[in-house]
Amino acid sequence: MIRTVLARTVPRVLSIAGTDPTGGAGIQADLKSIAAQGGYGMAVVTALVAQNTHGVRSVHIPPVAFLREQLDAVSDDVTIDAVKIGMLGNAEIVQAVDDWLEKVKPPVVVLDPVMVATSGDRLLEPAAESAMIRLLSRVDLVTPNLAELGVLLGEPTASTWPHALEQGTRLSAAHNVIVLVKGGHLEGAVCPDALVDATGQLPAGRQMIEVAADRVDTTNTHGTGCSMSSAMATLQARLGDWSAALSMTKSWLQESLEHADELEVGTGRGPIHHFHRLWAGGPTQG
Fold it and tell me: For this structure, is 223 an active site residue?
């Protein structure tokens, strides 16, 4: 899908996602990520999740009618420059978001298809997977992890970077959407990410833009996918350039991982350090 994006100094970015009471993932991570990229963050809650740095304990999904009320309340009042979509949970929620996107038509839409956790656990009801695939036609960028990329294609998970890129290329062509292929779950000293495009939105008609960085030796990676997708949405609304958005997101995320251990949040997989650049000079003085 090709849309005209008018760059805005402080973009108004809406996260549609579930919660994380420890603040490392979900809408809490999205709001931090949006703010770190210079955006004004807003949030509509799809699910209340009881989780910590060790995993999810339970999920409570409010009535879908209330989700619709949240979405309408925001868009009836605020001009939305970008939308980041995270955890949706079931087919009824996916359809409600799909209907709202058709009505509002935000200029930038990024989908993080929260379907499979790093642990391998499914986070989306199987009946909702086909609805999620249909949602791809409404968005500009989809950011699956490797397992989710395989699910969206109905194939096994790629185990090599070339295979992942090949899957991303086919997903992009099939649904006319830019795909951010992520190498974080692969082995090796280098962690690549790439925009794969069959839509003609990348600069100079390029079909792939790859950015790589050294893999950071840390277990504190909770919320990395949420944070990356919301950063991409914000920077695309600011810059109107997917290539520049990826370059800036990758640099910020790399430093967020390098400084993640400083936070000492939880005893499991802790969060990344969203505000490492802001806090680099020490706490603000009163």
Answer: yes
